[in-house]
TrEMBL record:
Family note: Belongs to the YkuD family.
Source organism phylogeny: Bacteria, Pseudomonadati, Pseudomonadota, Alphaproteobacteria, Hyphomicrobiales
Name of the featured protein: L,D-TPase catalytic domain-containing protein
Pathway connected to this protein: Cell wall biogenesis; peptidoglycan biosynthesis
Claim: Transferase is one of the keywords in the record: yes
Keywords assigned: Cell shape, Cell wall biogenesis/degradation, Coiled coil, Peptidoglycan synthesis, Transferase
Coiled-coil parts of chain: 199-254
GO cellular component: extracellular region
Organism in which the protein naturally occurs: Bradyrhizobium neotropicale
Highest taxon in the source lineage: Bacteria
Amino acid sequence: MADRLTAAQSTTAIRRWGSPGIVTLAAMIALTAQTAGAGAKQVRPAAAVEATAPREAGEPIMAIVSIQSQRVTFYDADGWILRAPVSTGTTGRETPAGVFAVIEKDKDHHSTMYDDAWMPNMQRITWNGIALHGGPLPGYAASHGCVRMPYGFAENLFEKTNIGMRVIISPNDAAPVDFSHPALFVPKKEAIAAAPARADKLSREAEEATRAADETKKAAAAAAREAAALPATLRNLERLKARADAELAYADKALTTAKTDQARTKAEELKQKAATKAADAATQFDAAKTDAQPKRDTAAATKEAVKEAATKKADAVKAATEAKLALEPVSVYISRAAQKVYVRRNTHKPAPDGGGEVFDTSIEVPVTIRNPDQPLGTHIFTAMAKNDAGLRWSVVTIDNGDDAKDALDRITIPQDVLDRIAPTAMPRSSIIISDEPLSKETNYRTEFVAVLSNQPQGGFITRKPTAPMAVASDDAGWGDNGGFGFFFQQRDPNPQPVNPRRRSGQYQYYQPMQPMQPMQRGWW
């Protein structure tokens, strides 16, 4: 009955509209069919679910975010340990695909750009605002560039990760694959075994050299003050001598002109006193002049001693710094665009002008790439664990160019760089080969930030660039910063606070880009 009623109503409507109405109705039906067909063609990622590996998990070594599948997977030395759905950046605010590392963690973070929005269990990967954090997941890419994870998953994960953990954001699904190649670092057992004791020994020597340099500087300062006071002292003694000589001359003249015995006796007494005073003044002046030159020589000598002590301190601190860094995983980035190799190791020292920790940036040198005009792709090689050969490696490829093996075959890292970093390479060390240059967001408070230029970057390039990098100071005490102060004391005229807040209704949000800042140079 209901069907017949509907049919009757439709017939009545057609009669009322006439031929034009029929044409219009047909067009509407066709448009609806097209829209429905187009909607049917839109394929959303399959719904990801949280999962935990059925084994005891180790420390997470890397996280891989798949923009295509809207999923994050965390890996330890033996494989995947955690998986969860995510929501990456929406159209126009896309999460940048590339290579990153965790550089700051904040349990109760609030956005500096989006009305103080709550972003719990935040793990920052760029200083201009890209991070992994807890957030709502609508089932598709909906963020402003960050990687949202389920709230509970983000909370459980927070204490498991460390600063420096590798984060790979891939446009497609990617996973680490076991890999071996003669170019990958092979540590030396004797170097690994000797590294801790060597670091302690060189640290003590650096402390002793620092104390010696400080004492030499104090002695030089005292000698310089004495030398600086000499001219005034000599001028004063010279004036006293001149005055005494004038008094003696006056007494001698008075004796010559004395008319009576009484006047003559008085003049002789006056002359005797004046002569004694003049002799004392001359003696003091001559002694001061005699002492002045040794004091000047001492000041000059201690000034040279300060330079020598500073050089010894610099050498000792450099050696101690290298020894301490040898206890850390090493990360290497090779850029075809820049034709350079960059080396990073975490000092674990708080950055003095903002959040996060300081990374050593002292090695940046040219690298030889065979056929440099041909793409390499982007490949991340990671030392997953120790094995009998030294280290067990994996590779993750997120941008195809050359395959991983051929890409490594084309690279020649300078031998002196290898000699500094390879003998003590340890698990979680990595080598990244890419066609891309390092992003301007790479600085002394990051490991590496490299984004794929052939993928959307809306959520990255629309953010305020990080303030220009500071310059390393060479006058920071070795002991003041736990052994890394000499190389890593930073000064930033516009320090970026850890969690700045919105002020006067304005957000820290900018469209313009800033040019690449020059990389910090160290003792290389």
